[in-house]
Amino acid sequence: MARDKTVYTCRECGGQSPKWLGQCPHCKAWNTLDEGPAEPAAGAPRNRFQGLAAAQPVRALAEIEASEVDRRPTGLGELDRVLGGGIVEGGVVLIGGDPGIGKSTLLLQAVDALSADWPVLYVSGEESGAQVALRARRLGLVGTAVQVLAEIQLEKILATLEQMQPRFCVIDSIQTVFSDALSSAPGSVAQVRECAAQLTRAAKASGCAVVLVGHVTKEGALAGPRVLEHMVDTVLYFEGDTHSSFRLIRAIKNRFGAVNEIGVFAMTDKGLKGVSNPSAIFLSTQGEPVPGACVLVTLEGTRPLLVEIQALVDSGGPSPRRLSVGLDRDRLAMLLAVLHRHAGVACMDQDVFVNAVGGVRIAEPAADLAVLLAIQGSLRGKALPRGLIAFGEVGLAGEVRPAPRGQERLREAAKLGFTAAIVPQANVPRQPIEGLTVHGVERVEQAIELARSLG
């Protein structure tokens, strides 16, 4: 079969060249030419996605009929939480993570659970069918209704989808798939973009839910073009250390649900199992309170989580270090300046190390108050009292700002047996929470003095 003609288009100016050049001949930009299919001949449809949807008349927004999308649970509660309730027909999900983190294992479990009611297809581009079957046996999966295709050519995959008409399909992985319409190697920017676009078109046209597995770079971002994240409906990231038994899966984009949801899994000999009480993972198992530790109630999507923040302050010499794991390093430097200016606690000649226990990454500013209390506890060498939690955002003027959904955070802490809380004054509940004493503060210096008096 003759290969379709391809052209190289400049990302900067849109100019085209019949072959790859290091420099665009039109705008003189370097390394901006990407391969793509050539425009069809005269008389042929110019848009390759013209058949995706019929032309619709212009209507007012209030006249358009809208209904909630139907969801199909995958059988894995934590995965359903991140997806917003389950798989959506015709939805395209992109899931990325480090090698060996558990992407293929999780999706094989989901495919096996969905195969009881739906026709499913597992397309493996990295492993043979025998390797996939061996993993299924190791995980204890039945797999009698799971159809497996070991193929990397896009046209054959699309033909199989059209013939089988599955309701759920996994492509593992999108970087291994190539199209005959392009001459570049699998995994290149042009191939990844073209294959993802064709699979997305097929999913929308047929109503088949498609999951694309994506590789990540050394920096942790999805390999290939950033446009891949814009083409799909949902983007999930696997997080966690491959040497640890716990995995986190986070949604950073979801057209059918909330973003920043988090699912927690434990890796066992029978695959990934959902963790019903993830707060137990992120809390230390110390028997007695230790200096430099403070428990934070953070929000991950709709779920409040209790995470222990640990700080170590030690003499650092002329060039002290500022290091944080799971927290923003620049924000740590800002908090140390606020602590010095407004609370009189100086760490200018000290090394400061801050860590979020359990490998979780905290991005919300409500962790500021817990970080400051942990730092002052380590500097004084005196532990905070047992059963104390804290949360609140700290501003440059030394004020303690309220955190969103403070009531839910306090109820979660009380449910897990915590007895005292240091929170912003605006987050103090009007009705007392049984078993929990709430102390409201408005300034950083008030919080530090309160922590010293409680300790």
UniProtKB/TrEMBL annotation:
CDD domains in UniProt: RadA_SMS_N
Pfam families associated with the record: AAA_25, Zn_ribbon_LapB
Region (Lon-protease-like): 351-455
PROSITE patterns, alphabetized: RECA_2
Keyword match Metal-binding: yes
Motif interval(s): RadA KNRFG motif: 253-257
BP GO annotations: recombinational repair
Binding locations of ATP: G97, D98, P99, G100, I101, G102, K103, S104
GO molecular function, one term: damaged DNA binding
Family: Belongs to the RecA family. RadA subfamily.
HAMAP family registered for this protein in UniProt: RadA_bact
Domain comment (free text): The middle region has homology to RecA with ATPase motifs including the RadA KNRFG motif, while the C-terminus is homologous to Lon protease.
The protein's name: DNA repair protein RadA
